Amino acid sequence: MSFSLAFQIKNLINKGIELPDDMLLSIYEASGSTLMELFSLALELKEKYAGKKVNFCSIISAKTGICSEDCAFCGQSAIAGKKGKKIKVNTLLSVSEIVEAAKIAKNNGANEFSIVTSGTSINNENELSIIANAVKRIKEEVGITPCASLGLMKYEHLLYLKNCGLEVFHHNIETSSDFFPKICSTHSFADNTRTVKSAKKAGLKVCSGVIIGMGESRLDRIRMAKEIKELDVDNIPVNFLNPIQGTPLENTEELTPMECLKTLAIFRFVNPVKNILAQGGREYNLRQLQPLALMAGANGLLLGNYLLTSGRNPSLDMELINDLGLEKAGYVK
Ligand code: SF4
After folding, report:
1. 119 inside domain
2. Above pLDDT 90, what percent of the chain?
3. Residue 263 belongs to some domain of the structure
């Protein structure tokens, strides 16, 4: 008697045994009822971990443009800046501007709000102090989980932000360690994991994920899911490349919606008790299948606009979770 792929995966997860790469790779070949059984398992694991709650995170680009790094996917990189589409460049927003954006995010339905800055890191103590003050006011006045994504960071600065009330720090590993040199030469995969580890050491919850669709192999995606598992972070955003004009990835082949959904399911199977978030590029890549992200392992969505591209109207996502019988997560202090 042969057991189904979903049955074999569930059995290994229940026994705490690492899922073999070839078993995970075969998910990409699944279709029809075999695929539905896999999505059903991803949903079962998600519900066991997160119930009906959907995490909604919103971001603000608190500092845009002017980056010396060369991340191939990014419209703010040094190399995109030379031939890319013109982006509005600003200095760091004021504390009040950041707090106002957090209020709007909360009114739109977000339970988490991330202050995102471009660049290798934040530049000086003045910027750190603006972010710290914004975090304090967001906690006191808005009641939404404050998160920050500030590039590569020292432990001491992360500890300072934690002591000012920061709850979550975001820093993506972006892709697998093997593929990383193909998308960035100015910093390393190890630099990214060092920042993730420093944030954990500072007592922050950590959000660290990937971008798929940058030309990596399916095996690279499985490696990413496993490398994230090793880092043992709290939230795992899975972004889908929306190619930006003027970047080296501007002509990258599109993902299919099914490829994206299968990748979300793989991330859930490898990381069954984590927040798996379907983030940037979901409109562009999932298209009409966006609701299925929440049936294929994800328990969170990025709400509203991205850093350089527009997201969809938040009211559509509120309607989406109502229609699916799900609820938005609340703010837990
Ligand atoms: S470090 Fe951040 S802002 Fe700079 S190029 Fe990379 S992703 Fe873009």
Report:
1. yes
2. 85
3. yes
Question: Which residues, 6 or more positions from 126, have their beta carbon under 8 angstroms from its beta carbon?
Answer: none
Residues in the chain: 333
CATH code of the domain in which 159 resides: 3.20.20.70
Is residue 333 domain-resident?
Answer: no
- For 287: left if phi > 0, alpha if psi spans -120 to 50, otherwise beta; the answer is left
Q: Look at the chain and report how many structural domains it folds into.
A: 1
Distance 120 CA to ligand 1 centre (A): 7
Provide the domain limits for residue 100: 5-328
117 CB within 6 A, ligand 1: no
Rounded CA gap, 247 and 244, in Å?
Answer: 6
Q: Answer yes or no: is 228 within a domain.
A: yes
Provide the H-helix boundaries in the chain.
Answer: 5-15, 21-25, 32-50, 78-83, 95-108, 125-137, 155-163, 180-183, 189-201, 218-231, 257-270, 282-286, 314-323
- Nearest protein CA to atom 3 of ligand 1, as residue: 118
- pLDDT tens across 103-129, in order? 999 999 999 999 999 999 987 899 999
* Residue 330 neighbours by CB under 8 Å, 6+ apart: 111
Q: How far is it, in rounded angstroms, from Cα 126 to Cα 169?
A: 19
Is the model's pLDDT at 272 over the cut of 90? yes
Whole-number Å distance, alpha carbon 76 to ligand 1 midpoint, is: 6
Cα 248 to chain centroid, rounded: 21
Question: Which of 59, 63, 77, 121 has most ligand 1 atoms within 8 Å of CB, for mutation?
Answer: 77
Q: Would you put residue 51 in left (φ > 0), alpha (ψ -120 to 50) or beta?
A: left
Q: The whole model's pTM is what?
A: 0.94
98: phi then psi, degrees, rounded to nearest 5: -70, -40
